[in-house]
Write the structure tokens for this entry.
Amino acid sequence: MAHPIRGRTAIVGMATAGIGEAPGFSGIELLAQATLGALADAGLKIPDIDGIFAATSTHAFPSMSVAEYLGVKPRYFDSTNIGGSSFEMHLLQASLAIEAGLCDVALICYGSNQRTAGGRLVSMSEPQWHETAYNPRHPITAYALAAARHMHEYGTSREQLADVAVAARGWANLNPEAFARGPLTREDVLGSRMISDPLTKGDCCLVTDGAAACLLVSADRAKDFPQKPVYFLGGAGANWHRSIVAMPDLTVTAASESGPRAFDMAGLTHGDVDLVMLYDAFTINTILFLEDLGFCPKGEGGRFVEGGRIAPGGELAVNTNGGGLSCVHPGMYGMFLIAEAVAQIRGAAGKRQLQQADIALLHGNGGTLSSQVTAFLGSENAI
């Protein structure tokens, strides 16, 4: 049975800013640009915001910094930072706050100038004390460990990992906002520079600038706004470890817990899902999450992604914006999962628009396969 929170809140404003390269702007300036865009999208003004949910890569107290910069005095605020999955958790937290009457218009936001700042930011995946002696290169060393173990245990190949990147580029080529476009083949990925065996440069996410923001209100108000409402249907998080060396099994993430609980909360099955947005910081992520979220059995993820199954025209639409691998990845990517799901559900995704996009699964990842948060967004047809 679906949870009472299902469909009780909706996104009524959404915008991105500075995707790719935005020279001359700080991260919080880009965040503000995205916020102003989301307000314009919803027909609202800054004083209408009374709830702030923020996490960034550079602020110790993000919601306070955002409130100060925007000139907002929120009634409710939260700076939960669990890495790149923070924003999927914020969807749940903001929905609960609105339903409880603690705020009326909730802003969820992120911004970073990681690329034009020379790739420098405070890493959410810094080595832990029990890893430092091994001189890991973070965060890629951790993901390479998971990839190597998956290959050893299940026969997953580098070619199958490459297919994830090729599929993402196929979607990016339909997205004019994507940073990396153009031809990409298996051979290109396999032949790119090895970064941390078995992951090459082609297996790694982009380093970009970018910001995104969305505004949530109660479902009772949602139809009064200019844009088609996108409803929050449910969400759940799970966290089994912080450091990769404490991960119970390198081939099984806590998505195997967050996914089923989110499906139950939303009252949905896999057959209901039209769009799957996964946090693809590295190609192994997509394979692990497809398995752990139940789209294929454990160990079958590599074979599942072969043959263009998750590429444009394939059986399952995955990361239709191009993902972190080819669209945008400014340090933390979770807000952009939301942005693409909103675009698809609204029918505003241009050449990459799916024929049916009523229900989207979003899955955020934080740290080194650490925090996992699954959320569902849907159209009015899903209510």
User: Anything to note?
Assistant: The first strand starts at residue 9 and ends at 20.
